[in-house]
Design a protein that fits this description.
It is built from eleven helices and four strands. The protein has about 500 residues and is α+β, with helices and mostly antiparallel strands.
Length: about 500
Amino acid sequence: MNPRPQRITYRTSLALCFCLPLLTSCMVGPDFQRPEAKVSSQWLGNPSMASQAAPAAEQDLALWWTAFNDPQLTSLVERGMQANLNLRMAESRIRQARASMGIAGADLGPSVNTAASLTRSRNPASSSSGVVTGNLYQMGFDAGWEIDLFGGLRRGVEAAGADYEAAVESRGDLLVSLSAEIASDYLNLRSLQQRLTIAHQNLTAQEHTAELTRQRFNAGFASKLDLVQAESLAATTAGQIPLLESQARQTIYSLSLLLGGEPSALLEELTPDGPLPTAQATVPVGLPSDLLLRRPDIRVAVAKLHGATARIGVAKADLFPKFTISGALGYQNTKSNALFNPASSFWSLGPALNWPLFDMGRTRANVELTKAVQEEQLLSYEQTVLTALQEVENALIASTKEEEHRQAMAKAVAANRTAVELATALYTAGQTDFLAVLDAQRSLYAAEDALAQSSRTVSTNLVALYKALGGGWNTGEPQPATTNNVTGP
């Protein structure tokens, strides 16, 4: 046999092995480009509420809760960012996405395996020999490398990278929601405590009025109706107190959960009354276009769109043949002491092609599926942008109008206090009936309670504005949380 044709075939195979990697510059599928979103050049909200200039510093939004100048609020937010369980789960998802990205990247390189075996076999007797029993020793390496000729593997790495980015940005989105929820619950708690104080003060005044009315009734200067109405008003106010106490306790439980603790974890810390914190109403909101880069939920939508675009290339690559280079090197012998002799060695090297020619349209249907998913992600991105713009505009107008409402309620409280004093004086002088006193006291309590709620709403609207702007996080991958402390800063 002439060995030259075998050498030519081997050299041809070897040349293909080295030339195929040089052809991997081709990548099927569309290249990702960030979609352009058309937004207005300025906000519709009251200019006095928002500074149209770009934020003076990223730190202003990243640590927006410090604008309330409340150390306890700052402590709660910072501890929540360390101990919140949903946040820690998000950090686990980041690590999962990073590992998946490593798995996808590993497919680009060759794989090498080693194996060793000992096989003992028994062959049946034949006419020429008896039963044959023997051992077979084998040891060696095998390797394989899929040549990414059409970019399917690289598109897979690109998609995995986009998934990782989406996981990181999702954590940022959770930070935004978490900081806003902690602040809103804390403000609500302080407001409830303020309303409880108002209720107790009004109850004391109403009980005093009822006692005076009882004395006047016993002296024959007041009717039974006046006494019953005075006692009814005091009882109605007293009935509001347990409801407010229940809401305050439940709010503390909610804060404890946000900080990753049991319901009672913050009772000792937050049960004592504290003032309702306020912050400066002017917020550096920047321009609508800044929102597209700042809000993490928009960044999540962009990353998901990127991943869906890359997966179109992964699906399209399945329409083309796959080329692999495989090889093996090792030793095989029936005797262990002769296993590593040169005569026991074996090796193989060569390219291979795999191209499914008929699969009932499965591959093409998968391409259409990935295109439809990419279209959905594009629409989801557009919807996310519109929602973000609406949330900022809602927060701007709500903050502006609620401040007007608060100022009006402050005037109403002052007027009702004067009305109570006048009605009490006129009734004592016998110039009006007792109903005027009761109406004035009832109106005063309602106005003071409404003012307290409006003051809380002004602050929570400010929190909503910071949340709508995407405040409460820094860009970049976070370090995993290691602290679970809810009992103190």
